[in-house]
Amino acid sequence: MPIHRGGGAWWRGAAVYQLYVQSFADGDGDGTGDLAGVRARLPYLAALGVDAIWYSPWYPSPRSDAGYDVADYRSIDPAFGTLADADTLIGEAHAHGIRTIIDIVPNHCSDRHPWFRAALAAAPGSAERERFWFRPGRGPGGGLPPNNWRSIFGGPAWTRARSPDGTPGEWYLHLFSPQQPDFNWGSPDVRAEFEDILRFWFGRGVDGVRIDSAALLTKDPLLPDMAAGGEPPPGTHPFVDRDDVHDIYRSWRAVAGDYAGRVLTGEIWLPDATRYARYLRPDELHTVFNFPYLCCPWDAGELRSVIDATLALHAPAGAPATWVLSNHDVDRVVSRYGRADTSFGLDRRDHSQPVDLELGTRRARAAVLLTMALPGSVYVYQGEELGLWEVEDIPDELRRDPIFHRTGGADPGRDGSRVPLPWAGTEPPFGFSPPQAAAQPWLPQPKEWRDLTVETETGDADSMLELYRSALRIRRAEPAFGDGPMTWLPAPDGVLAFDRVPGGDGGGVRCVTNLSPVAAELPAHTSVLLASGPLDGGRLPPDTAAWLRTGPTDGGPGLRAANRAVGGGPGPRTANRAVGGARN
Ligand code: NOJ
């Protein structure tokens, strides 16, 4: 079975595909993606060359926040299938050599979760309410929220519950929408429950978990008001990145350690690098998402700084970096790179800027070669491999994202990156749903996506899909790629060039990305392995990247020895390449 290759550290250099179930493929024709759709497309993912699939939440959920409001952590949303379907899917994926990572949402659940229903029905001070944050209100009649905290989705972070007799009662905390009550991680019930949930899924063959909102779980039990005037100093925030959150991950690491090769990956947005690195201590998480890279503008100097900072931060922990260009919370990368401002910020999503899709696509093609050449693991958000753009013109009445609704439309929200995938054909639903499906896709697809279907792009050497397929194939086959050291090369302004050199005497790979406005000379090489666009003789045009084969004479043994010294040696990389040079 291919899945057994590479042993326990498969995740150190893996290519992980983020699969957003409701928008991937609809097997039953109801306009929403499902597990039957995924099963039918596993050969597509295997041929694409990914090592693992991370599923955004697949549990029963009223989907107030697209499934990040979980009503039952040990089951599958009936709209997606059954637990038996999930078991089958996990097994079939393993047979294709693809591992399964699921999303665990521990900060909050759905207001339909049985524990929250029981808490609403119970009295103030009860054990049922102790699992959440219920508090009396302030002011006359308790009519004001217990403190001034704001929801991350906009509006207050507290909602007043009704007592069982229908009168207004205590308030409960929700850092996201009112339909997502926060768990109280001071409650032993909550701790035991999540450890059991981890065991439930690891026992079913799940290979890893992505931990949602991982830095938010613990709160200051005194629930103090947020002081006016900006963010508190690191470590003093009442609900972000508190020191006591690390106890949770130590116990989760121990749970994961009872199973072979399981990985814990944290969704952690923190500005402070030192605080962020603490999650990677050897007895905590294996990896964390690299949001500074995802948010970085298309600028050589800034990208190099982020890459260096990322590697410096991971080195002491011996943890591999992750490299992410997009996900279901951020603007699609071809749109972002096609704007005048190519950076991304969660709090300043702006769809009013003009987008040059041709430019954005050219840059996104270059960015994927840069990203996949960096040391560590890489994430591909579904549709990125097709070059899909952010759909900015979804009619307001069809938008589902609570961010759009809770900000009164001031923030367009995330629906534009979640539109169902185009697979084939020339009209919506582009093969997303079966022929003669009863329903339209749950979000409308642009008619222009007829040029971006899997069917259209397959076999077109210039398509984004064929670029991703080639890049993933080479990345998997090249001993220099994945986990291991890298060495920057001297390069003209605006050009990023670095070497990846494997152990032994074989040649390495040189990655060159031109972010400058003028063509750049290619550095020494023996052949071009892959380029994101046409080369101009021996020159690399603007917004283009190339992977170059280097022979032993291009870098020389001295350079390879230096690489090993800087990068800390080939240990984990060798482990990843244990069998036949394959990563898993
Ligand atoms: C982060 C998830 O990625 C996002 O989609 C979700 O809305 C929030 N956490 C709340 O669960």
Q: Would you kindly provide a written description of the structure presented here, covering whatever features stand out?
A:
The protein has 584 residues and is an alpha/beta fold. Among the domains are: 114-173, Alpha-Beta Complex (Oligo-1,6-glucosidase, domain 2), CATH 3.90.400; 290-305 and 320-393 and 446-584, no CATH class. Helices cover 27% and strands 13% of the residues. It is built from 16 helices and 18 strands. The strands form four sheets. Strands 9-8-7-3-2-1-11-10 form an eight-stranded parallel beta sheet. Helix 2 links the parallel strand 2 (52-55) and strand 3. Helix 1 (35-48) packs parallel to helix 2, helix 5 runs parallel beside helix 6 (245-257) and helix 11 (357-373) packs parallel to helix 14. The longest helix has 17 residues, at 357-373. It is globular, with a radius of gyration of 24 Å. The N and C termini lie close together (11 Å). Mean pLDDT is 92; it is low at 1-6 and 556-584. It binds 1-deoxynojirimycin (NOJ). 1-deoxynojirimycin binds at residues 65, 68, 105, 176, 212-213, 267, 328-329.
